Amino acid sequence: MNGRAHRVVQATPANVDAAARVLAGGELVAFPTETVYGLGADASNPDAVARIFAAKGRPPDHPLIVHLPSTTSLAEWARAIPPEAAALAEAFWPGPLTLILPRTQAAHDSVTGGQDSVGLRVPAHATARALLEAFAKLGGRGIAAPSANRYGHVSPTTAHHVAVDLPDLAMILDGGPCALGIESTIVAFPRGEPVLLRPGGVGLDDLVRVLGKPPRMAGADAPRASGTLASHYATRTPAFLVAPRAMASELAQRQARDERAAVLARTVTPPSDFEGRWLRAPQEPGAYAHDLYASLRALDANGADAILIEAVPDAPAWHAVRDRLIRATSDPSDDSD
Ligand code: TXA
Ligand code: MG
Q1: Which atom of ligand 1 is nearest to the CA of 96?
Q2: Residue 287 above 50 pLDDT?
Q3: Does ligand 1 come within 6 angstroms of the Cβ of 117?
Q4: What's the CA-to-centroid distance between 155 and ligand 2, angstroms?
Q5: Which of 85, 145, 189, 276 is least surrounded by CB atoms within 10 angstroms?
């Protein structure tokens, strides 16, 4: 790949094959998944994996998810697989679920951050699957891929978002906007029992249906997950959660201070002319999640002093969205990491 004009390429079969060769050569490729775009490297090549951390500006001890072409590859990467983990894999793979399991020797310290566990996911997106299959034909065993954004920033849901965040990346496969728009659900098994580390594309009710009971929620003893740090998924512009009934007075106060607010609203209507600084979010949680990161990036780009996000319902269907909104609006100094 030479020349920036060719960095973003359509996910045609020929380009997918070319991308698999780039991966086999130890370089990085960004690719679409059903959740968000991933920044991929050969998971078995520590030098290639190191390039992910350099490109993202991510601390090197943060573990990555290894993406697999099919559930049959699971035993190569994980051992002592609890029955609940097998049941979740069976129910939701390919799909937006990541399992944290005891690792085999296939999982190097570079991908696990030196932990005894490895994060594994079989994605459902046609391009991701085609890339994993093409890479497997070249001898690849798995693609390590975090979300393809700069560390701490909003995850990318389009190829354009990736190009903006990672301008030096050699190849970005464009498979259109991601269907789900928020990351995978992460379930770990620290003592053989399921623990929800990150809500995401697979809903809590879906997990309960398979597990027969809710998973334990991650506590202070949970394995570290950078997506679970307080101030993740953040805009550059400070963002705040505002209850629907408080929006009007919040806006009035900011206006009185001569501040320009940008708003992501769901039910509230604009009291005056906000031009591009007012975005209306969908009513339904799935559609809301689909648009969320693109909306945050758009509001972040228009030079406002603050982004006000109308709080969403405190209901199970909104669990993953609420989690992302709370992280996007928390003070970076809350990070213990
Ligand atoms: O939907 C997704 O999961 C996307 C797409 C690209 O697959 N990937 C993604 O990756 O969100 P990333 O790196 O941004 O978030 C993965 C999370 C991180 O918070 C990481 O710390 C956690 O998974 N993780 C990975 N391996 C882990 C392990 N062994 N123990 C605990 N957490 C782990
Ligand atoms: Mg991420």
Answers
A1: 1
A2: yes
A3: yes
A4: 6
A5: 276
